[in-house]
């Protein structure tokens, strides 16, 4: 079976993989053999699921995902399965996202939910302690895993469902396209250790220290940053973070696009930042998302 890989309409750096209904049909039987509880309790079943997906494309899907995500020139994949038929329900999307993740690496434990993945809603009313669920506030550009000890090489975000939604477009920025990358990456303050905490909802009872900017094996800059969680130690760090935030949000190089239900954004977390535009107000607004974060296989 051929794998349809195209360049995304909004960026030459982003690859789009379209999965046809006829290919998804071949996954119904192997997916039905694994319920969600077994995936949560028995990690090896997730690899079985991933193998069943990769077999549909003769091993080309895992190869394409791994090569694209690790390539500094790309590092981003949008997967669009043809799920218009009701036979592809939310459990199917959880299993498909699980399989995609396990084709490239091992997920981190998500403390917010106590599982290898998180599912959460964005709704009209919200009393949470972070921007994650606040519909009418833009979620500024950031990377994931800034406040945990585990390394976060990549992340998956799958849109499970949405109703009465206007706005809320995905926002991405590649570090190498950012107009202020050289200026701020070379600033010595950005290479100091910053303290990173998190609100109660994240269920993390410790803080970590690391710089905003570091370098990969080839000497190119990588970033670990989110605006809500750093705790600047002094004026110098506070002003640097403000300058960084302003420079990111004012960038003309942001890639902004809507994502259909069922689609997955798969990003390299070291040089791609992601965010979300604010929604238009609607008392019936509801969007459900799934998130998986993890590390690449080492072999």
UniProtKB/TrEMBL annotation:
Pfam families xref list? CsiD
GO MF, any single term: oxidoreductase activity, acting on paired donors, with incorporation or reduction of molecular oxygen, with 2-oxoglutarate as one donor, and the other dehydrogenated
Keyword Oxidoreductase in the entry? The reply is yes
Q: Please name the InterPro entries in this protein's record.
A: GlaH (IPR015038), TauD-like_sf (IPR042098)
Q: Which UniProt keywords apply?
A: Iron, Metal-binding, Oxidoreductase
Q: By what name is this protein known?
A: TauD/TfdA-like domain-containing protein
């Amino acid at each position: 079976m051929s794998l349809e890989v195209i360049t995304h309409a909004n960026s030459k750096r982003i690859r789009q993989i379209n999965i046809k209904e006829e290919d998804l049909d071949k996954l119904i039987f192997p997916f039905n053999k694994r319920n969600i509880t077994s995936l949560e309790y028995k990690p090896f079943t997730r690899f079985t699921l991933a193998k069943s997906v990769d077999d549909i494309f003769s091993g080309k899907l895992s190869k394409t995902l791994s090569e694209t995500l690790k390539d500094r020139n790309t590092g981003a994949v949008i997967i669009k399965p043809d799920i218009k038929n009701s036979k592809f329900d939310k459990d199917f999307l959880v299993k498909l996202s699980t399989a995609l993740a396990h084709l490239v690496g091992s997920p981190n434990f998500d403390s917010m939910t106590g599982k290898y993945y998180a599912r959460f809603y964005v709704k009209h009313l919200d009393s949470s302690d972070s921007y994650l669920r606040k519909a009418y506030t833009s979620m500024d550009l950031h990377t994931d895993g800034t406040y945990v000890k585990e390394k976060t090489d990549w992340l998956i975000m799958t849109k499970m469902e949405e109703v009465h939604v206007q706005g809320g477009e995905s926002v991405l920025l590649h570090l190498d396209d950012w107009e202020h990358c050289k200026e701020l990456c070379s600033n010595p303050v950005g290479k100091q250790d910053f303290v990173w905490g998190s609100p109660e909802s994240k269920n993390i009872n410790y803080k970590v220290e690391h710089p905003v900017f570091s370098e990969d094996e080839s000497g190119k800059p990588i970033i670990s940053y989110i605006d809500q969680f750093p705790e600047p130690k002094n004026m110098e760090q506070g002003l640097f973070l403000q300058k960084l935030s302003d420079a990111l949000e004012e960038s003309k190089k942001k890639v902004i696009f809507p994502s259909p239900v069922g689609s997955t954004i798969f990003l390299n977390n070291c040089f791609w930042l992601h965010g979300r535009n604010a929604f238009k107000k609607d008392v019936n607004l509801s969007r459900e998302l799934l998130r998986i974060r993890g590390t690449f296989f080492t072999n």
